[in-house]
Structures are given as C-alpha cells and as structure tokens.
Design goal:
The complex is a heterodimer of chains A (about 1000) and B (about 250).
Chain A (H helix, E strand, L loop, with lengths): L8 E5 L3 E5 L15 H10 L24 E4 L1 H6 L1 H4 L7 E4 H10 L1 H12 L5 E4 L17 H19 L5 E4 L3 H9 L4 E2 L1 H6 L7 H4 L21 H9 L3 E8 L6 E6 L6 E4 H5 L7 E6 L24 H16 L6 E9 L4 E6 L7 E6 L7 E4 L3 H4 L2 E9 L8 E10 L3 H11 L9 H5 L10 H6 L1 E2 L5 E5 L8 E9 L2 E9 L1 H4 L5 H9 L3 E3 L2 E3 L4 H7 L7 E11 L5 E18 H9 L6 H22 L10 E5 L6 E6 L4 H24 L5 E4 L9 H9 L9 H10 L8 H12 L4 E4 L28 H13 L7 H4 L1 H34 L3 E11 L3 E6 L4 E6 L10 E3 L4 E4 L2 E3 L4 E9 L7 E8 L10 H25 L1 H4 L3 H15 L2
Parallel strand pairs in A: 3-4, 3-6, 4-5, 6-7, 10-12, 18-25, 19-25
Antiparallel strand pairs in A: 1-2, 8-9, 8-11, 9-10, 11-12, 13-14, 13-16, 14-15, 16-17, 20-21, 21-24, 22-23, 24-25, 26-27, 28-29, 30-31, 30-36, 31-32, 33-34, 34-35, 36-37
Helix pairs in contact in A: 4-5, 14-28, 21-22, 22-26, 23-25
Chain B lengths: L25 E5 L7 E7 L2 E12 L13 E8 L15 H17 L8 E11 L4 H16 L8 E8 L3 E4 L3 H6 L3 E7 L4 E7 L8 H31 L9
Parallel strand pairs in B: 4-5
Antiparallel strand pairs in B: 1-2, 2-3, 3-5, 6-7, 6-8, 8-9
Helix pairs in contact in B: 1-2
Classes of the chains: A alpha+beta (about 1000), B alpha+beta (about 250).
Family (chain A): Belongs to the RNR ribonuclease family.
InterPro entries (chain A): Dis3_CSD2, NA-bd_OB-fold, PIN-like_dom_sf, PIN_dom, RNase_II/R, RNase_II/R_CS, RNR_Ribonuclease, Rrp44_CSD1
Keywords (chain A): Cytoplasm, Exonuclease, Exosome, Hydrolase, Nuclease, Nucleus, RNA-binding, rRNA processing
Chain lengths: ~1000, ~250
C-alpha cells in the first residue's frame, strides 16, 4: 500500500522527557503540476480523485530578472517579513513547502493564518508541497546541525528536486537571508532576494511600497541616536536576577517623550522619559526596564509635547524638547520610580491607521498614526501625493538604532480623509468588525425566490395563521424578529404568545452562511450604515415578520391568569401571519384610543396590562433600572449630514415589548438548561466587585444620599430614593453613574460554570439567555437550535453539544458584541463631531465629576461627556479646589457634582486627526472666566460661522450619492438596537 | 473556526505523514520465548508489546474457580517502567491495568473455544514495552498471535483497532499517542473480523451520534486490515517451523 521508513525524532522538553515520533516517508506525493505525467499516474493509482489544477497557466509571473513564466518557491523569512507583498494579487503560482509552513506556524500564528487564507483561495494558485514526507526531498537532520540550517537545507533540496523533476519549467527561489542565498546560488538554484525581485517586476505598480524595509534599505546612515538594546538572554537573566523589571510599555498620549511601564509588584508604574528612557519602545510592547537610583527619580511632567520632527535625521529639535522636560520636572515635588528601557522582550506591533504628514517631498514620508500613543513612522512610497489625501494603514518593520523613527511600509489606503465612507471603514477596522461583502458561497445558501410554504412545512409546524398576531417596532424597522399575541381562552385564562423569526430554519449548521454568521456574531449598527450578520434577503425579507405575510416563526406560548402568573409554557415551530406591523407610537395610540375595539386593540391592551404587572414584579425582585445617555442622530436624507441629535423617546409600548421579550428569554433559558445541562448557551451578568461602586457611593454621599450596594435589590431601592426636587435630572445622573459601575454581560455554555454563577445581576434573574433576536445575534440562533432539539423539531449536530466548541464560540460572540458596541459608539461620536463642525452653541449640561483642574460635564441632549478646564496653562486659577467636599469654588460660586450649568460648545479642528470639543462656561457667570451668552455675542461670530458651514456642505454633497440607499433603514435600526440593548 | 487542532493537513496527510485510512507499520513475530507454551511480539508503529500464553493447564490456587464446562482465561496486563516518556513505577494490579486485563479477557474469551477445555486454565500475560498510542489493540493482537503460537483452538482471529476523528470530520484509523493527546474522542474496537462481530467497544469521550457510524466503520476496516497482516505472519511462521517436516509445502 505504501512504503514506510520509520525513523526517530527526539526532542527534550523541560523535565527531559523523551518524545519519539514516527515519520513516514511516502512515494505518492505529487508535485502539483497537471502536466507532469509521473505524478499524474501516482494520483490516478491512489484514486485520490481528479487532480484539481494547482497552478494556472493564465497567471504569469513577470519579472525582468527571469525570462518568461516561472514558479516561485519562498523561504520562511520571506513569508514572515513580506506578508503584505504576498497578499497582493500579483503573486501567483507559488510553491509553499511544508517545511516553510511548519516554521511559519511555529514562529507567528497571525502570519500563518494569513498565509493559510491565501492558500485556501483557489484563485491565487498557492500550492503546498509536502517536501518533508516525500521520498526524494526528505533529508536527515545531522548531528549538531541547528534546526534553522536543517530547514534551509530542506528548502534547497526541494528547489533542486523541482528543478530536476520538471526541467522545462523555471523555478525561482526567494529568500531574505544572504547566507542562504549564497549557498543556493552555489547549488545552481535561481535565487533572488524579495526586494530585488519586486523592484524588477514588470507590473509592479504599488507593490514596491508594501515591501518591508530591512534596516539597510534606507539611505540615512548616521550616528546612533538610541542606545543598543540588550540581548534577550541578558534581559531574561537580568529579570531573573532582579536587576531588571518586565512590564508593558504604555506611551503617554500628551507627551511623546514620556511613557509608563506597569510592572507587577509595583504600586506606581515606572516612568520613562526622553529618548534614552523610551529607547524605541512602542505602546503595548513588553519591555525590560532598569530602575534608576532613588535620587534620580522624577515625577510625571504633565506637560504636552508634540513631535514636530520631519523626515531627516535631525535630532536638534528632539534634544531641545528633552531639555524642556528636564525643566518641567524640576518644579514638581512628588517623585515616582523612574527608569529606562534597556530592551524589548516582545514587540506588539500591529497595523496602524492614520495619515501622512503634509509638506514633505520625495519618496520618504512620515506617517502620523491616529492613535497618539504611537510614534510617527517613516515609510517609502512612490505615490505620496495621492496618499496625502487618504487615510491609510501602515505597519512597523523595524526600528534601527540610527533612525529617529521606526521604519514601516504602506499596507493599503482606506479612502479620502474626512469622508463618511472612510471614517466608517476606519471605525470598522479599528474594532475588527468583519464587513466584507457576503461571498458567493454564502449567497448560494440562500433559498431560491419565490419562496413558498410547502405542505411538508405545514405538516411540521403549528398553524397559527388564524390568530391575531402583531409586531411592534421602531419606525422604519425592516428586520422584524418578534411578534406578539394575546387572547382569552377561558374565563380566567389568557393565552399569550411571543413569536420569533425562525432564522435557524434558513441557516443550517455547518453551511457557509452559518460559519459566516458565527464569525460575524452580530449585526453592527453605525449611524448611517448597517453591517448585517445574515444577507439582506433573510434579514429584511424571509425572516422578517412583516405585516400580512406568512412567515415561519418559533413560538413561545404561555397560558396566564389575569395576575400574569404563568400556568403553562410550550414551545413549537409555527407558521404565522402578522396582522399588522406597528411602530411603538401607533401601538400606543391604539391602546389609548377607547373607541377602537377590534382584536388588535384588545390584544394590545391585554399585553400592556400584563406587562405592567410583570414589570412591577421584576422590580420588586431587585432588577435595576439603569440609564445611559443614548442619542439618536437624524440624518439629512440628501446630504448625509447629521441634522439633529436627539435623546430617544420612550413609550409605554416599548416597555411592553421588552417585558415579554424578557419573559420569553427566561422561559427559554430554563427549558434549554433542563435539557442540555452541559452546553446550553446562556447569558450571565456578573455581580460587580464592590470597589466598582466607589465613585457612585462617593457621589451619593456628597449629595446626602446613602447608596447601598450590598445587593442588587438594595441598590435598586436606594437609587429609587435618591430623588431631589430641585434637580429632576439628578436621579438619571446617578443611574448613569451606576451603569458605569457594571460589568459586561456575557454568553457562556452552561457546562463551564457553577450554577450560582449563572445569575443575571442587572435583571435579577437566576437564568437568562438570548432568544428573541436571531436575525441580528448569532447567540439566538444557537439557542433556537437547542430549543428546536428540546421540542423535537430538529436534530442535534456535533458542535452544538461540544462544550469546548461552545466555549470558543461564546468567546467570539462576546468579543464581537463588545466590539460592535464600541464601533456603534465611535460612529455616534464621529457624527456628533460632524454635527458640531462649524457650530457654536450654548447648551445645558450637568457636572458629572469635579476634578482638580477641571469639571467633567455631561450634555444629556447629545450624550456627550466633555471636560471644562478651569485654568489655562500658565495662568493662576480663579478656583479653589476642596478635595474633601469635592467642590470647586470661585468667589461666591461653588460647583458640586450634579450641578446644572450652561456651557458653550464648539469643535476645535486645528488638528485634523484629533478634533476635540472645547467648552466655555456661560452660566453661572464668573467674572474673568465665563463668556457671555451666545445671543449677545452672536453678531461677531455669525459671518465666520456661515462660511464654515458652507464649506462643509459642499464637501458633504460629494459623498451623498453612494449612501442614499440604505440610509433610512439603518437609522431606524440604530434606534431599535438601542432600545433592545437593555433586554 | 480554529485551526488549533488540525490533525490532517489540507493535502490529506496526518502529522506523521500517514493518510487518514492508513495503519502504522506493523511488525510481528511468533514464538519469541521458549519457556511459555506460546508467545508473540508485535510492533504497531512505536507501540511494542510482548505476549506469553501458558496452558491450558490445571487450575492453580482455589479449585473452586474451575468450571465444569469451560476453561478459565486469566489475563494479566502490565507496562514496563520505561514504556512512556516519563519513567514511572507501575505496580501490577492498579486500577488501569486491572481494567485493561478485564477488557483483554472479554476480547479473548470471545475467540477462544473455551468449551473444549473444561476444568482447565489458560494464562495470558501481556507486557507493554513502549506505549505510543493504541496500547489495547496492540495487546489484543499480540495475545491472538501468542494464542495461535500456543496452539490453542480459536474461532478466528480477534483483532483490535482504534479510530478517531480528524478536524471533527474525517475519520482516521490507528491513533498515535500524539493524536490521542491533541485530538478528540477515541473509539477502540475489538472484533472478529471474519464474521464481522464486535466483541468490545470503548469510547474515551462521547462521540456525537452523527459521527459514530463512520468512525465505527473505519475502525472495523482497520481490524480487517490488521487481520490480513497477522494472517501473513502466521502462515509464514507455519511455513518456517514446518519446513523441516515439510508441513509448509503441503498447500
């Protein structure tokens, strides 16, 4: 059947365990060329099936160094360093040796994943040749031979083999290692370095920019600017000996020459300052730090320094700024541990988003990352003029001693700076939201239109088409995933049903669409864009429970008495026909309109009554009512310009729908936990540690309220009691603070935790899950599948019951959900910025915190939290700070937390990367600090303001056309999401 | 989602270079000792097992154990201290080896024609010299060979094999230690491959019911493959021994 030669590989781990492994050498591994007869025969004999074409004759590698078409064999270092280049479509017909693949996997998992995704893409024609199991290319590792040398030898052996095996074809070996290149050339292998090869590509267009820079490729060679790093061995020895400390480097956002290192066992982070102190550490790196003697310790500078360097290696300006730091330090008293970075243990470099610094000519450009804690990066590009208008992504390659800035290379451009599309792209990228178009494979999984309900479907589902079911959602909502009904079935019994879109009917486990949805995990709502979890056909049509259309649903039906006590619960799949899809407002009108007495009105009233009882009961148990300043942004349909920012409105019907969704979720959670004690997907909200509540308790104390935090119930009660007649917004403010003390709720499979940890703190229920929004959350789909098995409507599949798989899945869901939330907020923040661009307004606000030199102000109307600085730099402050009482006093005006103020808001756009809000105090009026109300001083500002608005409108007009389409939809969905987030 | 536990590369090769349906190399030998009535040595990949068979002989110890209608099969399993990466004293009669002994007993009793030897006892001793996954199958296969060497009448070969799932999808056969540690559940099957009867089935963890049939089928195929290899060894052995009396040339 096969030839085997077994040999022994030994490796020793820690405790000197001897591992012996077999290694089979085969004669049935093919070279991958369909034109090769000998390999074709092997394949046919083995019945491996028809050979798919691994290499394409359509793709031709063109390089001036080689005549005609050729095939590329890559060295490990090429893959590791030049991944960005390889991802370019120019490269095809590449042979990846198994040795290389293993080495890459060993060295860098992210790079390995990227490589695998290229290999998996059939249009790229990357072929993996298993050289280490092939009888002709396998070689023994010699005694004393280092693994690297051995691997290089394997690679060269494979190159020679290919050359002999297919003499007609040309094979080119690419390596970055000079030594390896020299030996390869001696062995008559056609070898080039990556940069040689790329520079001579016939059609190189932008690929050159993506080349990672090896330090020597930059023409700046001067004297060393930085001290040399210690070697890794020295570092580890130093750390073990207690001379050095290991920690994560955090760069200061204000001062580019300062940073902190958090070290275990130190109360304060270690400060590092200046060029010498930072020594090429980049934010996030794990570094080794040497502590100075105590007399050299300093304090944080608290001055703002910006890097104004240009591309030349001129460090005069740097030296100047270092002096400035020294000056700043001398004034201060309290000293903190100080040290300097002596080496980097692990780089945490990633891809950074930002823009090019203007005003530099030539191919060497400076890149300014949006994240202020990242240094500027020098890149080489031949398209600088174009890139200056773009937001781009750049990655760091190296930071040699003699270079002031790290060297990097351009990865790709995102779009025009300040453009809505670009900003959305940035938001999505920074939050790692998968947002590409759905692939062909995914779309193939969709049902064919016209979609009809077959008899088989009817026989398997309960027919509820005759029941008056209706849905209540925000206006303009297209993905309706829940509908309700309520009817009398007995003198003292009501039947209440919650019907959820049956998404799991369309998304079958293991299909492409399922995998895609699992990886996306949730639909992401940006202000003017929605990134769907499932394709639109499902989300807005087949799954959406639209009024008057027959749809599949998963129903949860309770029998209740008039006191909202559940008498029985049942779950089944059903066919429903919603009578009406209403908005919250419409439903509210029907309930309030006494003249209406049809089925819908009756049902709604019944639901509403029950919901009120349910809500009181829930609150009695200690469920928290929390608040967060959430806003809705109205967009102009023509210009895509934010027209108005508004806090969302709530009707009684909102809470009605919410109560029944909660009830359904709880019922389902109980059911699936009972049937799947090991792998039920649940949601828990951990009790926050009491230290989290410190700010809340402190704030309460200053206002004379005693906030109890021992239990959810006590917290709820004390929040209810903290009401002030003079300041009606105070209670909301406290609730906002309380919200911030909370931990994130998370999904988990029931088998991984103790039952006592299943508790949902915010809702005060012992069990909870998500069942009601399968269109926009993947967790709900899983819950649907579990429930379907429970009620005999579907069968299980392996991954559903695997505790570890579920656990992995939960981790992804939690991560994506968190990111989706942040992305949503970032998008709102960006649009609020847009809204304020060129505007100056007086707004009502409340003091959230009193700080030493500033007041933290909350503007409820915009959900904005901004800082009002009480003293300008250098000036003497008019204010007196009372640390005990947490007040600021100026003359006879005293600021407490939660005081109402009026502030003037404007946007400082001086720095295009970091626009920020500027506040000025209007009321209460303090001589020499406050500004006059806007109405009086309006005349002066007006002309200027108009001009700015005009400019801005022009800019916006350009970008309208592309986004008009799905705008209304997304806007309303955004609203919907917010209302449901509490659920 | 994760590529963490990829046991079969996308070219279809396992970590040690086998394909999914390929056994490890099997080498075996009958009659390695002269003292016992029958003995055998088997190597399945790096797993190495010695087996010795004594009997049938008079029941030792309490007479009461003897049975009037069949022979008693007494199995003893042990592992050498040097058989795994870590050196460890393994006292005989610990929980693991007792369990192994019972399992062995079950498989062997199914094959031995015990009814031919009432009031007697057959002792089977197996010793693992090197453990690299699939210990139980190797023991069963070695014991079968030793029984044949001892000339004890068998209904047919009893063979065992393991199978598992690679990448949660592809059934693979004859699991090595490395794959056992990295992979999911392992199914061990002992079968009478000619009559296609399963005599022992053991799972290390739960399989999903969707997977079980195909894994079982793979494992049974493995038993048949192993039987064919053992068969060749046995007939060669018979030829060799019988060459002096010209037994081997009879066919």
């Amino acid at each position: 059947m096969f030839t085997t030669k077994s040999f022994i590989k030994k490796n020793k781990i820690g405790n000197f365990l001897k591992n012996v492994r077999e290694h089979y050498i085969r004669d049935d591994i093919v070279c991958g060329f369909s034109s090769c007869y000998s390999c074709q025969n092997i394949q046919n004999n083995q019945n491996i099936g028809c050979s798919k074409d691994n290499f394409s004759s359509n793709h031709v590698n063109r390089c001036k160094l080689v005549e005609g078409n050729h095939y590329l064999i890559l060295d490990t270092n090429v893959v590791l360093n030049q991944m960005d280049v390889l991802e370019d479509n120019l490269f095809g017909n590449v042979i990846i040796l198994h040795t290389v693949l293993n080495e890459v996997k060993h060295r860098s998992l992210p790079i390995f994943k990227r490589l695998m995704s290229i290999i998996d893409n059939p249009s790229r024609h990357f072929y993996v040749f298993t050289n280490d199991h092939h009888k002709d290319t396998f070689i023994h590792q010699e005694d004393q031979e280092l693994i690297n040398d051995y691997n290089d030898r394997c690679i060269r052996k494979a190159c020679t083999w290919y050359h002999r095996h297919l003499p007609k074809e040309k094979f080119v070996f690419l390596t970055e290692d000079n030594e390896s290149k020299r030996i390869a050339l001696e062995e008559n292998i056609m070898t080039f370095s990556m940069s040689e090869y790329v520079h001579n590509l016939s059609d190189k267009h932008l690929v050159e920019d993506k080349l990672a820079k090896v330090s020597s490729s930059f023409p700046f060679t001067g004297k060393d600017i930085y001290q040399a790093h210690m070697s890794l061995v020295e570092l580890l020895e130093g750390i073990r000996g207690g001379k050095l400390y290991q920690g994560t480097f955090k760069a200061s956002r204000e001062n580019f020459l300062e940073g902190y290192i958090n070290v275990d066992g130190f109360d304060d982070p270690i400060i590092v300052q200046g060029r010498e102190g930072l020594n090429r550490a980049v934010d996030g790196d794990i570094v080794a730090v040497a502590l100075f003697e105590k007399e050299h310790w300093t304090s944080p500078t608290e001055i703002i320094l910006e890097d104004e360097g240009v591309v030349e290696e001129n460090i005069d300006e740097l030296v100047e700024k270092e002096k400035e730091i020294k000056k700043a330090i001398k004034k201060k008293g309290d000293i903190k541990p100080t040290g300097k970075v002596v080496g980097v243990i692990r780089r945490k470099w990633r891809q950074y988003c930002g823009i090019l610094e203007g005003g530099i000519e030539g191919v060497y450009q400076l890149f300014v990352p949006s994240n202020r804690s990242i240094p500027k990066i020098r890149i080489e590009t031949r398209q600088a003029e174009f890139l200056k208008t773009q937001k781009l992504i750049v990655t760091i390659d190296s930071w040699p001693q003699n270079s002031r800035y790290p060297h990097g290379h351009f990865v790709r451009a995102l779009g025009v700076i300040g453009h809505q599309d670009t900003e959305n792209e940035v938001v999505l990228l920074e939050h790692d939201v998968p947002h590409s178009q759905f692939s062909e494979e995914v779309l193939r999984c969709l049902p064919k239109l016209p979609w009809v309900i077959t008899e088989e479907d009817e026989s398997r589902r309960v027919d509820l088409r005759h029941i008056t079911i209706c849905s209540v959602d925000p206006p303009g909502c297209t993905d309706i995933d829940d509908a309700l009904h309520c009817r009398i079935i007995d003198d003292n019994k009501l039947e209440v049903g919650v019907h959820i879109a049956d998404v799991s009917h369309f998304i079958r486990p293991g299909t492409a669409i399922d995998l895609e949805a699992a990886s996306r995990a949730t639909t992401v709502y940006l202000v003017n864009k929605r990134i769907d979890m499932v394709p639109e056909l499902l989300s807005s049509n087949l799954c959406s429970l639209r009024g008057g259309e027959e749809r599949f649903a998963f129903s949860c039906i309770w029998e209740m008495d008039y006191e909202a006590n559940i008498l029985s619960t049942k779950f089944h799949k059903s066919i429903i026909k919603s009578k009406s899809a209403m908005t919250y407002e419409e439903a509210q009108l029907i309930i309030d309109d006494k003249t209406k007495n049809d089925d819908i009105a009756f049902g709604l009233r019944g639901l509403n009554k029950l919901a009120k009882i349910l809500k009181t009961r829930r609150l009695e148990k200690g469920a928290l009512v929390l608040a967060s300043p959430e806003v809705k942004i109205h967009m102009d349909s023509e210009t895509m310009e934010p027209l108005e920012v508004e806090v969302k409105k709530l009707f009684e019907t909102n809470s009605m729908v919410e109560e029944f969704m909660l009830l359904a979720n709880i019922s389902v959670a109980e059911k699936i936990l009972q049937d799947f004690p090991d792998c039920a997907m649940l949601r828990r909200h951990p009790t926050p540690p009491s230290t989290n509540f410190d700010p809340l308790v402190k704030a309460g104390k200053h206002l004379g309220f005693d906030i109890q935090i021992d239990s959810g119930k006590k917290l709820a009660v004390s929040l209810d009691q903290a009401v002030s007649d003079s300041n009606p917004y105070l209670n909301t403010m406290l609730r906002i603070l309380a919200t911030r003390c909370m931990l994130q709720a998370v999904y988990f499979p029931s088998g991984t935790l103790q039952k006592s940890d299943f508790f949902h703190y915010g809702l005060a229920v012992p069990l909870y899950t998500h069942f009601t929004s399968p269109i926009r959350r993947y967790a709900d789909i899983i819950v649907h599948r579990l429930l379907a098995v429970s009620c005999g409507a579907d069968s299980t599949y392996p991954d559903l019951l695997d505790k570890h798989k579920s656990s992995d899945l939960c981790q992804n869901l939690n991560y994506r959900n968190r990111m989706a939330q942040y992305a949503g907020r970032a998008s709102v923040a960006f649009n609020t910025h847009l809204f304020f661009k060129g505007k100056i307004q007086d707004e009502e606000g409340y003091v959230l915190f009193v700080k030493k030199n500033a007041l933290q102000i909350l503007l409820p109307k915009y959900g904005l939290e901004c800082t009002l600085y009480l003293s300008k730099k250098g000036d003497e402050s008019l204010f007196v700070y009372d640390e005990e009482e947490q007040t600021q006093k100026a003359g006879n005006v005293v600021f407490h937390a939660f005081d109402q103020v009026t502030v003037r808001v404007s946007l400082d756009s001086k720095n295009i990367q970091h626009e920020k809000f500027v506040l000025q105090l209007v009321y209460p009026y303090i001589e020499g600090f406050s500004v006059k109300p806007l109405i009086e001083s309006e005349g002066a500002d007006k002309s200027n303001m108009e001009q700015q608005t005009m400019d801005y409108q022009d800019k916006c007009n350009e970008q309208v056309s592309t986004m008009k389409k799905n705008k209304r939809k997304t806007q309303s969905n955004n609203e919907k999401r917010k209302q449901k987030k509490k659920v | 989602m994760s590529r963490k536990k990829e046991l079969i590369s996308n070219i279809g090769l396992r970590l040690d270079g086998r394909r999914a349906g390929e056994l490890r190399r099997i080498r075996c030998k009958l009659g390695v000792f002269s003292e016992p009535d029958g003995s055998a040595y088997i190597e399945q990949g790096l797993t190495k097992v010695l087996a010795a068979v004594y009997g049938p002989h008079q029941v030792r110890g309490g007479r009461s154990k003897a049975q009037h209608d069949s022979a008693i099969v007494n199995c003893q399993f042990s592992m050498a201290v040097f058989s795994t990466g870590e050196r460890k004293r393994r006292p005989r009669g610990d929980r693991k080896s007792t369990e192994m002994s019972i399992h062995l007993h079950q498989a062997l009793v199914a094959a031995i024609k015990v009814e031919l030897y009432p009031w007697t006892q057959i002792d089977v001793y197996v010793e693992v010299l090197h453990a690299d996954g699939g210990i139980y199958p190797a023991c069963v296969n070695a014991a079968t060979l030793a029984l044949i060497d001892a000339g004890i009448p068998l209904k047919e070969y009893v063979c065992a094999c393991t199978a598992s799932l690679a990448n949660d999808d592809i059934p693979m056969i004859d699991i090595s230690h490395q794959e056992e540690v990295m992979g999911g559940p392992t199914l061990t099957v002992a079968a009478l491959p000619m009559s296609k009867k399963v005599v022992l089935l053991e799972m290390s963890q739960r399989f999903h019911v969707d997977h079980l049939p195909k894994v079982l089928k793979t494992a049974l195929q493995g038993c048949v493959d192993i039987k064919n290899i053992l068969d060749v060894t046995v007939s060669n052995n018979v030829k060799e021994i019988g060459s002096s009396t010209r037994w081997g040339n009879m066919t």
